[in-house]
Amino acid sequence: PDYFLNAAGKNAAETIGQVIIKVDDVLEQEKPEAMLVLGDTNSCISAIPAKRRKIPIFHMEAGNRCFDQRVPEETNRKIVD
After folding, report:
1. Domain boundaries along the sequence of the chain
2. Which of 7, 18, 20, 65 is deepest in the core (most CB within 10 A)?
3. What's this model's pTM, rounded to 2 decimal places?
4. Do 3 and 26 meet the contact criterion of CB atoms below 8 Å apart?
């Protein structure tokens, strides 16, 4: 990868917060025309700073919807969509 975010935290909230902060720094530096987000893991939350910067987002392999809000990946899918 061109960037290693080193965003792992002590819990999910800390990790997600670090992903948002660090991805925003990369977006500021790179100024991409669009962003491709893969999957439904916490890394896909990087779509939040992209959306706030009005960068178009393409979401691939988002996983099948299970409609179970107890599943963290389902929450991630809904946030990105």
Report:
1. 12-80
2. 7
3. 0.84
4. yes
